[in-house]
Each structure stands twice: as C-alpha cells, then as structure tokens.
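Components:
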Amino acid sequence: MKVGFVQIFPLFGKKEENLRKTEELIKKEKANLLVLPELFNTGYLFRDRKELSGLAEEIPGGETTEFLLQLSHRTEISLIYGMAEKHKDRIYNSAVLVTPQGKIRVYRKLQLFNQEKALFDPGDKEPEVFEVEEAKVGIMVCFDWLFPEIARVIALKGADIICHPSNLVLPYAQEAMFTRSLENGVYTITCNRIGEEKRGGMKLSFTGKSQITDPKGNLVLRASEGKEEVGIVMINPLLARSKQFTKNNFIFKDRRPKYYKRISTK
Ligand code: ACM
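Structure:
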C-alpha cells in the first residue's frame, strides 16, 4: 500500500488557493492514502471565534469536503485532512477522511492546544478506526501526540496506521511519534505544515519535518523543515497486526490494566 504526506504552507484565509495548491501537488501522484496538515484549508492563527466561525464549514456539505471528495474520486487516493468543522453552534478542530468511493469520516480533536481552547469546542466523540483498502486507519490531530492514551485507544481498536494531521510549533512531536509507533506497534503518518503566521499580535513558526514511522518505531521517511513536498512510501499494513515484541512479550496482551485503570486525576 502506498501512503504519504502532503506538506504545505497554507495561506491564512485563502481557501481557494490552498485547495488549488493541494490539487496541483496531488493530481499526478499514485498513492492509496495521503495525509494533509491540520487546518490545511484556512491556516491556524484565527484572531477570535468570530473569524474562525466565518471560515469553518459543515461536514459533509462544506466547499472543502466537496472539493476533496471530487479530488479523491478523480485521483483514486483516500485523503485525510484537517479543517475547522461547524456543527450547530459548535466549532471543532476536526480531521476528515474521504475515499474515492465517497465515504466521509470525521475525528474531532480531543486535546486542544494552548490558545485553541479559547476558539474551538473540544472533541466530543471517541476516536474510531476506519477501513482504507486493506488497512485499518485511525486519526489524531497535532497536540493529541502528548496524550499517549489517544494513540493507545486507536491502536487497541485495531488501527494499523495512525494518521496525524498537524500544525506543530514545539520541537518534540516528531520524536515522540517514534514512541507512539513502538509502544503500539503501528505505522504513523504525521503531516505537518511549514511557514510562519503573524496575526493579531501573535506569531508562530511551524516546524515541517512531516514523517512516516513503522511499527518498530523506525523513521521511514521525513520531509524538510521548510519546503512544500509530497512524500510517499510503500508499506505493508499487515506488519502492524502482530503485537509480538519479544519471544515472550506481546504489546497488548501483557498490559495489566487491573492495576492501573482506576487511577484518575482531578
Ligand atoms: C497544535 O496542536 N496545533 C500544536
């Protein structure tokens, strides 16, 4: 199975340009699954909830999802991308899977980062696992990397690949994802954005280095820090089905939840 990332520099508020750029980068590629960054169609630094609300879209029905459904159908590539989702009076930082057959699935970011808490509503659903051709695919978004529970739950639900649309600004996540892969025996695809945003007195630099890791926690492919690029590799998702770690150790079976599942924090 051919999987990859589409590392781009989204221009703030310029949806049409961001969608066209994505189309240009993808349209000649041959792949089964490609991952785009978090909030890839709008950019990241919203001044306030009103501005965010003006750029958020319904799923299905919004222009971004309609556009990517068509693109997925034409290219025969399943796509996972981050965008602001409007649902009644809520706005979620969501990631969407669209397939060439017209399937649409949504994950709503559970762990909001820093100033996102003043803008978005936190996700309100358990992460799910979706079928993409022969693979089982789970989704988490950016800062979810700091919470190993999310990757664990996705892996326990059977994911072979964790897709991770991101807008990373801290220096840790790419390294942490090696551990998310190893401790769960899964592939991960982190698709990060690049570039800088300066808005409303705030400034952020995004770290690029989109990457793919394998079920043994090895780096398979990594993009540059500062260039727009598509990276694609061939993987065997079935390698993520064996959770045998040593002759006598199994990643899931050897867990002892009886001794820690009741621990909670205030
Ligand atoms: C992030 O969660 N966008 C850092």
